[in-house]
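Researcher: Here's a chain I'd like modeled. Treat it as a single chain, no partners, no ligands.
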Amino acid sequence: WHQCACGPLQCLIAAGVVPFTSAATPSNTTFVVVSSIWGTSASPVEVGPGSQNALLTLSIEYTGGVQATAIEAVLRLPSGITDVYGDSAPVTGTTGVNPHTIFQLTYNLNIANNVALGTYTIPIQFSWTTTAGGSFVSSAETDSFAVNVLGIATLTYQPSQVSLNTGQVNNVKFTLTNTGTGPATKISTTVSGSLVSVLNVQPTIATLA
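Model: Modeled as a single isolated chain. Structure tokens:
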């Protein structure tokens, strides 16, 4: 949940961050993308059309039987998504990965304003080296993983201008607007004020597109 301070009106918004987790490890692959998430597992973030320098974190299991001395991973990004330099095939890597361990790779990506919301399947090509009998052995394989582009909800509110009558029930209208690139869901609001009693303290909204 994210909390945004809105003066006397406070809003709790369900975050649109949905990490992907692999259900099973294919037996014929050396690398398995266990999860993919925008931001980090400790601090996930939402992304949407227009997001810049968005951090994508991949958790990858290496299932090889010997240590990989060097690993390189190239993404094949869909139209409208690039790295911060405009490259649609960004590359990163790591070294010294032991058998049957999980390691992380990160990419910083830009998302164009015209990218549609949805789930994208992204191919990833691994190239790696191992050693056998004192010689380097090079290998390669292509896998894929999925990421969500759900948009970012940005809520603004405007209270109606009314004069409160003492000793009476007064109806005060608040207009809540989503000006972001994605829907907000499971919105709960807390209304408070001094010298007044609020009858419906916590009105809720299921979805605000």
